[in-house]
Amino acid sequence: MAPSSSEYAVSRPWARPPDDIVESLDVSPDTGLNPSEVKTRRKEFGPNRLRAPETRSAWSILASQFKSLIVALLAAAALVSFLFGELIEGVAIAVVLFINAAIGFVTELRAVRSMEALQELGTVDAKVRREGRVQVLPAEELVPGDVVVVEGGDVVTADLRLIEASKLQADESALTGESVPVGKQVQSADEDAPLAERSSMLYKGTAVTRGVGEGVVLATGMDTELGRISSLVEQAEEEETPLERRLEQLGRRLIWATLIVGALVIVSGILAGKEVFLMIETGIALAVAAIPEGLPIVATVALARGLWRMARRNALVNRLSAVETLGATQVIMTDKTGTLTENQMTATRLLLDGDTFEITGEGLDTDGEFRRDGRTMDPAENALLRQALEVGVLCNDASLRQSDDDKKASSVGDPSEVALLVAGAKAGLDRKQLVDETPEVREVAFDPDIKMMATVHESDGQYRVAVKGGPEAVLDVSSTIRRGAEERELTDEERTRWLDRNEELAGEGLRIFALATKTSESKDVDVYEELTFLGLIALLDPPRADVRPSIESCQDAGIDVVMVTGDQPSTAVTVAQAVGLVREDSSPEAVLGQEIKKTEQMSDQERRALLDSRIFARVSPEQKLDLIAIHQDAGAVVAMTGDGVNDAPALKKADIGVAMGQRGTQVAREASDMVLKDDAFSTIVVAVEQGRVIFNNIRNFVIYLLSCNVAEIMVVSAASLINAPLPILPLQILFLNLVTDVFPALALGVSEGDPAIMDKPPREPEEPVLTREHWVSVGGYGLAISLSVLGSLALGLNWLGLERQAAVTVSFLTLAFAQLWHVFNMRAPGSGFLRNDVTENRFVWGALALCTALLLAAVYLPGLSDVLRTTSPGARGWAVVASMSLLPLVAGQVVKEIRGRQL
Hints:
The chain is 47% helix and 17% strand.
């Protein structure tokens, strides 16, 4: 609780009446705090946040650069140089060591800071009553005394004492370990009640699973129960993705393989009569060059860059491991409302017994008309119409704030409920005014099992019950129906007629609510019994314009899109046809949720029918779990969208859980791997595309690095075995290790990707970074580069008659430029020779320009050329370098063209 030194401290608040609590905190539940009070209390208590886990300091990142086996090998090489009296080589290797560490430090620092900054993009909000109105504010701004409104799906953002509650339950497993939701109430608990039994309290970090309520903030930040145990800090652990683990395993294997190769080169060179120091230095340098130490750095940069691209496109990734899985997604299960549709509900039609009213205006525009038979009419003149609109306004948890300068309004709450408030506003009905006239004394929160919600209002000494919900549910508990001022029995025949009308409207893609009411002498009456049915109100939520091309993109990419909705079958089918999920000229049927069973309870034929279906309606959260399991058992990687608290289990079970950022509950967001800031299906497709791009980028730079390293191994090994002069000296190997291993690989890692990447089927989820085909490519590229280098050395010595130093310079430059041009062999198969994902990558051209300048400096810059033992090769030498270094590129492009024609 709040510090005892504070004037707002409350002792054992769970045992005290709500009136005492609000008095102690000096706040009115009806109006909340005003800005000056908030400012004063924030100065005293600070922001409502826990202590964040420590970020990696620059010093720790720098120190980590000296903890690898590569650094140990470089240090060993420097030590050997000093022992043999080769001071220049020793100093040069030490410089290489520090340059290598500096490049790794700068690159990793930027990547780590980018990843940390991404975490700041997602914020948690709270609904707070201040100055008499409910506002959505960042939870960090809460102070003791704030009045917070909660409902099913909210994460509790501060410690609260309840002052109102209706069917309220909370999941307190984060604090108590008890996984079963516990009931909450306004009545005080015992003074000595343990935390798990304080039914009048809600605690920070827990989740509201059902019902609605209001509470006053008692403690924030580190003063909360959660702050005391610092559980969220413990959860903030650094995550290593499966991809990163595979790259680390690959690196370790290569280290031992290259150490063995290096030892063989040393032994064979000494046996062939070469200098002992030269061969030891060469073996160590070769081992260092052969190990792709750039793998973890470039992988981190590739992930960070890809995540930033996703964030700019409204997809926030909660877990790094999701990035790899995204690229392998084979099935996307998506909700309808707000994902395939605009989630901008507008009430367009109201059906009463004997009358149908058209309602004009769209979205939050409260300037609309009511029309009957094409003629405008005044809602105040029709008592039944006004009564139906009043039920929609009263039985409502949303809020609508009218702007002073125009007819536009701002809203808080479910879009369907907001649409009912807007419809009421068009008839001159304001919820606050109605509640002032008929105070709300009780609310029965929406129950997804019975699909209804009710509020009870005091009116002229009696109690008025307002009910809204699914047409089938409301009709089932209604016993009478009103027409004008008359009320008569609701017969089974009339129920059927109304259900038929409901089906007709749903077939137009409309969402339908039924409205009902009754009057009682007691506020504790059973609200779902003996109701008077008033009519149906139809809401239009048009399909998103960008959904159809996104679904087509998924279909081209071999990804199955499946609609899973709790809406009516006819509505689901209509929307599915409108967005291109199924053909408009087809006659698809929606599979009802009740037809989904546990996978072990189904025959192969039933399972196949469900796997082939694209539309599922009236699906419960439990049935979503079964549907995901059916697809996963068939070997598919499944992405699942969700927004409600009941969707959390399905979001966790799916390979990729995708929560809605706008309408989604905080529980759903915390259970998900990714959050869509705009709730748009097209954003899911963008994220899948980026997942593929990131994986392909990593694969490309791994192939590039390994093929360059294999070439260096082949060149030195072959020269040692045939007792030829070394085509590249130890310090030259280390120099290339800095030049060609880092910058071009980094450029490949941040590529925008192949534009045609979504025209290909998803890869298998267990597919390794490098398949057998890729290893063959690595060996082939390495062989082509090594042959060109050995050929250039032979030409330099035998054809040009160059001195040994000049000839080695030619082979050194041939290897260097062959590796630079080799970057163009990393283009996607089937892409154009001149226009592809590599040639259109500006970072590639920047890397080539920088590396070319460094290579020229290695030959012509005094001091550096002395250390590297290079000399000007002359015009003919440069001609050999240019021609021989291009041969691996030509060979690679020929192979690419042949493979492209086979695709």
